[in-house]
Fold this sequence. Notes:
The chain is of the alpha/beta class. It is built from 20 helices and 31 strands. The longest helix is centred in the first third of the chain and has 17 residues.
Amino acid sequence: MQTVGRMKFGRGQCKAGQKATRSIHIPRVSSTRIVKIASAATAVQVTAREQIKSFEQYKELYEWSIRDPAGFWADFASQFHWEKKWAEDHFDYNFDVRKGPVFVNFFKGGVTNICYNALDRHVAEGHGATPCLLFEGNDPDRQKALTYAETLEEVCKLANWLKAKGVKKGDTVAIYMPMILELPIAMLACARIGAVHSVVFGGFSADSLAGRMEDAKSRVLLTCSGVMRATKSIKLKSIADKAVSLCAEQGFNVDTVLVYENDNAIAAADTPFTPGRDHWWQSEVASMPSTCPVEWVDSEHPLFLLYTSGSTGKPKGVLHTTGGYMIYSAATSKHVFGLQRGDVYWCTADCGWITGHSYLAYGPMLNGVTNIVFEGVPTHPTPARCWEVVEKYKVKQFYTAPTALRSLMRSGDEWVKACDRSSLKVLGSVGEPINPEAWRWYHEVVGDSRCPIMDTWWQTETGGHMITPLPGLWQEKPGSATLPFFGVVPAVLDEKGNELEGEAEGVLALKQPWPSTLRTVYNDHKRYEENYFGPFPGYYFSGDGCRRDADGYYWITGRVDDVINVSGHRIGTAEVESALVAHPSCAEAAVVGYDHPIKGQGIYAYVTLMEGVGHDGVGDDALKKQLVAGVRETIGAFAAPDVIHWAPGLPKTRSGKIMRRVLRKIASKEEEQLGDISTLADPSVVASLVNLRGK
Ligand code: WT7
């Protein structure tokens, strides 16, 4: 069914017992041992509400978390504000499709509000003057700061504006904004009134935005005039307008659009504006009352939708709910980064992705830290930018993606060394496998060999970190996400779904729910069940391959499905293929990933032209450009193919199925290792494709 264990990009090269970078003892935690310990009831001495000080404490807490998830998470949740406490039996679930519908409940009966816990709670406890959001513009001279009390006021004003426009509890609100303070403010304002936000990354095209607004039935859109990214200006409002028109063509009306004027990029005068439908943020929101009552919601009330790509079909609207997501994003932020109130923490992710939801908007604020919101790119104006920001604000925890590290590593160590990084305590990595070279550079050069590296494995669907080190509690190994977080029970399965014990390689599944498990795919619970719980009944299937070593450490080897990960952005090959086929000259397309030195994976597209186009199935460079432009238009610039390979024929089985394995080998110039191709309908296709490489 799946292709198991495709090794990617330097992964799996590190053997257990390899040169230790710091001299901490490597504990042996094989999965079998974890299970055994779990069944022996131990008196719990510590709770996860406090900082964890030793590997022994981690083990004790871990056992508790999987033996008694209801009790463990209730204990952690008790430090937050609940308008009404959860019921005694607040946790139940079914992960087994054979037994009935899949569902997960955490803190059932409990009533709370995540915005209250992220803002009001800190203000009520006397921390209103603590800086909450620090804005660092694309231009290093632009900055802004809001305290917790000020952020709360901004959130309330926007919440009041949304209410005045008729937004009610349960309505979905689309947000298409760049990384300015108003983006997390918008998310929190929705949460405050029980509205469901659906943030669409600012790099997505009008088509993609339209599809998401239509699917979620978002009648209200919050957007921005535009943004500067390095030296390029992007007219977001023009893209948003096109998306609204596309929705109207499909019979769906977006009737209210709020536009923030980001005048350093695109001024109001240069921004298209439709009176009646459109409203200027600065003129309307500022005059709203700065207090707004909280809408208390049930723990399982939907908090947000975030669309993500799968191996087939349209992107899925992953739904997360309030209580479980709140508790898990808070717990992982606290323990993985060692957060303490007032710390200056910087996550470089965009709020358009799950990392920006859990580890910028929610988790850190639930912990009362100071969050940096960075509008720019890591290499502008120079490759020193990140380290200048670290020095300027004395950043303690820094969280970024391997792709950024690889590009900064290329620019040379001098940019890093020129800045004072002595404030850094913990470094994090997310989004894709981190290759050992980048890991070592991060550790040795950026962190001066002092800071532990948190290689966090998780997904949009998991809502929070699943497999990750905890700072200083056990030895990391470059390239391994190491051990499970509390409440997470990973399983390595073979192709038939048998659970493998000890050292093993297979696909990664999760055995029982954690509080921020996705609850459904919006409007398509069947797809949720089929996609995540169908392949291996009883388990959540991650779509990733994985190896567990002799120490019980997990090594993620990359996706085993038709999803590729480009610079930490998840892209469905089927989506790129359908964007290519939309071009009138393209008859068929097949897209695969290939190893890319900076992006992790690049997009490699095989294109079969329509009869009569090109010469013998080969087009010219102008046509290549048009095809790439088509993908940018349909999905977004980040999904543009790196390579177009003319394919008069594609390697297909006799039943017509494309053998992607063959295409991957040709893309990575490894055609001598094709393996068995005897089931191909026409094996000569392989040689002709190899001949056309680079044409
Ligand atoms: C996929 C999820 C996690 C938030 C950002 C991406 C890959 C993610 C790691 C890691 C190896 C990783 C997986 C996963 N991935 N983190 N530390 N090591 N692979 O979220 O867009 O939902 O993508 O990203 O393949 O399935 P996403």
